[in-house]
Design a protein that fits this description.
Blueprint lengths: L1 H16 L23 H13 L11 H18 L8 E4 L4 E5 L6 E3 L10 E4 L1 H8 L5 H7 L2 E3 L1
Helix pairs in contact: 3-4
Keywords: Signal
Protein name: Lipoprotein
Length: 153
C-alpha cells in the first residue's frame, strides 16, 4: 500500500512538472538570463550584454507575457523568411526567455513555443536583442556569429 501511494504521488509530481520543462518566461516562469539552461546559452547571454555595451547591437525594450511572445514570434517568422537557407527541421532557442521554436521541414515557416528537441539536431541559440537586431538588419548572421550572439550546435 505504501509503495502504491508513493508511486501515485511521484506520478502526479511528474505529470504536473512536465509542462514546465518547456515553459518559457513569456508564460510567467521566472528565468535567469545568466543561467545555463542549454549548453552554450550562458555564453550567448554574456556575448549579448557585451555587444550591447560596446554598441555593436541596440538593446531591445522588455515586453513580457503574451505581448512579448507575439513580438518574439513575429521576429522569428521574419528571420525565417529573410533567411530561407537556415536548415529545415532545426531548432531556434531564444536563450533569455527559454523559448524553443522549430523551423518547419516544408516551406519557410517556423513553429513557435515547441518542446525542446529530444534528438541530436541542429540548434541555433540567440538572444531576443540579437534576434531583433538581425531582423532590423542592424547585424547580419555572420556578424551575429562573430559577436557570439548566435551560436549553432
Amino acid at each position: 500500500m505504501k509503495k502504491h501511494v508513493i508511486t501515485c504521488i511521484a506520478s502526479g509530481v511528474i505529470a504536473l512538472a512536465s509542462p514546465f520543462t518547456w515553459a518559457c518566461s513569456y508564460d510567467g516562469l521566472f528565468t535567469n538570463p545568466f543561467s545555463e539552461t542549454y549548453p552554450g546559452a550562458l555564453d550567448v547571454s554574456i556575448a549579448t550584454q557585451i555587444a550591447i555595451r560596446s554598441k555593436h547591437m541596440q538593446p531591445v525594450p522588455e515586453v513580457n507575457g503574451q505581448a512579448g511572445l507575439r513580438r518574439a514570434s513575429w521576429w522569428l517568422n521574419l528571420m525565417t523568411k529573410a533567411h530561407p537557407d537556415l536548415p529545415k527541421g532545426s531548432y531556434v532557442y531564444l536563450v533569455d526567455h527559454q523559448l524553443w521554436s522549430r523551423i518547419s521541414e516544408t516551406g519557410g515557416s517556423i513553429e513557435v513555443h515547441v518542446s525542446p528537441p529530444t534528438e541530436n539536431v541542429k540548434v541555433f541559440q540567440i538572444s531576443e536583442a540579437a534576434l531583433h537586431n538581425l531582423v532590423e538588419k542592424e547585424i547580419t548572421i555572420k556578424q551575429a556569429r562573430e559577436l557570439g550572439v548566435l551560436s549553432e550546435t
